[in-house]
Each structure stands twice: as C-alpha cells, then as structure tokens.
Specification:
Length: 257
C-alpha cells in the first residue's frame, strides 16, 4: 500500500480549504436569506447566486485540500473533464436543494428534501473529484467511512438550509458559516480517511493535468469569484419591500410553521 499524505504543505492547505468552505457557506446562506425574503425573478436570481457561491466554495475547499494530497511511489494527475463535471454537479445539486427550500410550501418537508439533495450533491462532488484522480495503482474505499462521509454531508447541508430559514442576524449567519465550513471540511477528510491506494510502480506517463497546472489556477479563479460575489452581496442593500417582508415573515414562520 502507498503511504497517503493529506497535508504535503503542512497546515496551509487544510486552513485555506476551511476558509474557502466558510466563505462559500457564508455567501450561500446570505444569498439564500435574501432569496427567501424576495419574490419572483429576484428570488430565483438570489437562489441561483447562492447555489453558485456555495457549490463553488465546497468545490474549491475540496481541491485546495487536494493540493496537499500525495501518494508515495506514484505521481498524481487529474482528468480535466471529470474535474469540471464535479464542479457543475456541486452547483447544480446544491442549487436543487436550495430551490426545494425556496419554493416549497411545507417547511419541514422542504428542509428534509433540500438537505438530502444538497448533501448528496456535496458527496457526489467529492467522489467525482476523487474519480478524476489518475495514478499508478488502484484506489480503494472503506464503505463504512464512505457512508459516514455522506451522512456528514447531508447533516451539514440540512443545517445550512435550516440556518437560512431561521437566522437573520449577520453575526448569526457568520457563526453558522463557521460551523458549516467545519462540517464540509470534516466530510472531506472523513472521505479521504476512507481511501487506500495499492501502488503499481510504472514508468508509463499518466494522462491528465497536474494539480499546479490545472487545479491551482482554477481554484484561484473560483476563489476570486467568491470574494467578488461577497463584495456584491455586501454592497447590495435590501429594498424596503424586502425588509418589510422579512419582518412579516419572522412572526409568520414562528406562528404558522
């Protein structure tokens, strides 16, 4: 078995990946809150922005962490189309979960459906990203740890959507984002603990791109997108109608649902 190194650059990649997860979670939650307090096309646009922000943040977290991943005895490459597909899956499925909450009539049912959908989206992104690995050897997974990672992903997604439905204070959203970022990071490293690699030494060239050729530039680009989106959300004021609907919605939710 090849020795797996999950932090080749020390604490840099785990800490930076956690920051990316928290940033994506904060933006996703904030945009979802704005979407739930809006209507019509405005609600749709806010939820789409939330899906792209959270999906991008989760994907960037995963692959920033993977910059520090190595296996003794083999080089590592990444299948470019499959890696991009994992990003699209993250945004699409997480978005489906958010739309389930944003347009559902029954809060509890919508939350359960949205949490399951988004959670499986997070897990699908992770394991699609792992399927994109190209190395000299065979990758195996511990089924119990894989299952645990999926459960963590579902819990993290459900907690995030619950926070979007229940929390309005920016400080509370920030705290929820820190928790969500920790849950997403835990899901990633639990999934990585499930991995073992049986190395088969070979001099054949591996197909795909190295992490620095492909993953690093893309992660930097997506990280820049997150920070630009953060600036847009911070500078976008709530309209008077939205503030009024938010005030009316809080007592309605506590009394009716």
């Amino acid at each position: 078995m090849g020795h797996l190194d999950h932090a080749a650059f020390g604490w840099l990649t785990p800490v930076l990946s956690y920051v990316m997860a928290c940033t994506g979670s904060a933006l996703g939650l904030r945009c979802t809150v704005r979407g739930l307090d809006a209507s019509g096309r405005s609600r749709r646009n806010w939820l789409l922005t939330a899906a792209s922000a959270m999906g991008t943040g989760i994907w960037t977290m995963h692959f920033v962490a993977m910059l520090g991943f190595g296996v003794t005895g083999t080089e590592i490459r990444y299948d470019v189309p499959l890696t991009i597909l994992s990003l699209l899956v993250a945004m699409t499925v997480v978005g489906a979960g958010m739309f389930a909450v944003g347009y559902g009539r029954d809060r509890h049912r919508s939350l359960a459906l949205g949490g399951l959908t988004a959670g499986f989206g997070i897990a699908s992104m992770h394991y699609l990203g792992m399927a994109a690995l190209r190395l000299h050897g065979r990758v195996r997974y511990d089924p119990a740890l894989v299952g645990l990672s999926v459960v963590i992903g579902v819990i993290a997604a459900t907690a995030a959507l619950w926070a979007a439905l229940s929390i309005r204070s920016p400080v509370a959203v920030a705290v929820a984002s820190l928790v969500m970022g920790g849950a997403v990071s835990s899901m990633h490293y639990t999934g990585m603990m499930a991995v073992s690699v049986k190395v088969t030494p070979s001099r054949d060239a591996l197909s795909g791109a190295t992490a620095m050729q492909f993953i690093f530039p893309l992660a930097v680009g997506l990280g820049s997108y997150l920070f630009l989106t953060a600036a847009f959300v911070a500078l976008s004021p709530m309209s008077g109608r939205t503030e009024a609907s938010a005030s009316a919605r809080r007592p309605a939710e506590s009394g009716v649902r």
